[in-house]
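Here's a chain:
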Amino acid sequence: MTAALPMYDRPETEAANQKLWCVIRANLSEMWRDAGERGWSLPDRLTQPEDLWSHWMDPGLTLSQTCGLPFRDRLKDVVTLVGTADYGLPDCPPGHYNSVFVIRADDGRDRPADWAGMTLACNSRNSQSGWAAPANHLAAEGLGFDDIVLTGAHRASANAVARGEADVAGIDAQTWRMICRWDPEVAAALREVGRTAPTPGLPFITAGTHPAGDLRLALADAIRSLSDEDRAVLDMQDFVVLDADRYYAVPTPPFPKASARKID
């Protein structure tokens, strides 16, 4: 069995995430002991998967967190939806998030009509917040991105814009909050110029053969019992269950592969 929380993982969150998993694990063990069930062989610690697709599609997956686009695209028939954390993000309903558009602090091009002609730093073509939300936002204005660089991570996208290797990026709002908290030099070099409409947040998942019930209860209790210190680190305010159809309803814009290139 495997478990990981890879989506908002960084050195500053590792200890709090491990403590969260310890509570989830203890909750599950207690449920199964009370029910007289052997249950799963639960891992002692969260891992750091090298390949996210292999991790998410592992038939032995106990718990992970994925992005809304992979969930509705390739994972919906492979995994079981458990629920979603509420990060208390501004102007977002519980369990939702959005993308923050950032440009360099000295760049005055702050209208969507400007961004269409700029180079977009995108963490992944499979990212809801880095690709789908920004593309859908511009599509509503009858516009699109013509030049895209793939960076591999939201923090790398923010750095690419700060260094002048790209002009604009759509950053997951929770990731942007962490960049502002723990990467102040990068945040100071950037300027927020807009936010996309909210969409369902990053879902917790388990393998498709696993029922969500006990895991849902264990995870909800663990999040709601976080210490003030760990809550301040993880920003998890509550646990909500959103219907899977709300994820499926989010449009996925085609990715213009021919115009994208990778940067280190």
Q: What stands out?
A: The mean pLDDT is 94.
